[in-house]
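This follows on from our talk about sequence and fold. Please put the record directly below this note.
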Amino acid sequence: MQIEQAQREVRQAYLGGFAGQLVSSLLWLVSAALSTWVSKRDGVGFLAIAGMAIYPLTLLVLRAMGHAVRLPRNHAMNGLAMQVAFMLPLNLPLVFAAAYYHHTWFYPALMVALGTHYLPFVFLYGMRMFAFLAGLLIVPGVLMGLYLHGSFAAGAWWTAGVLLVFAGLGREVARRERLAEAMGR
């Protein structure tokens, strides 16, 4: 199997990352709202717990949309996909350590961890847009952590919005690619 073909299959199976980013965006949005209007603890706790359900919820959204929920067992990208899936959870102890030291660093630290999680998506999906997504999470995460201490949930609001925009972009890339293939290009 050629790399380009494997990447195309990943893009089509996961709609360019649409479902995962949509689910993530909604969870970040709820977390931001809880942190802003209920309590910081509730916002952080919600995202920490609900974040464990991102992949199952992503599969549920894909299934509801009539898409395959997994790549074939012997697919060339399965190994990389598994490694990418564990990157973010394995970085959570660092996020919690940063937040323990300075509570306003929770969302910025998680933004940096999430951004680095998206970097291998560039190869996995064959989509450079994930490099831009990573940059739009990492750079603001660092800047917010260093300079924006007055708004605890600013990073959560930013991340929810960025993920929602990129969910739409990924879906559009997959839609156009599917349309081009149907037209025989």
Summary: Residues 154-182 form the longest helix (29 residues). Residues 3-182 form one domain.
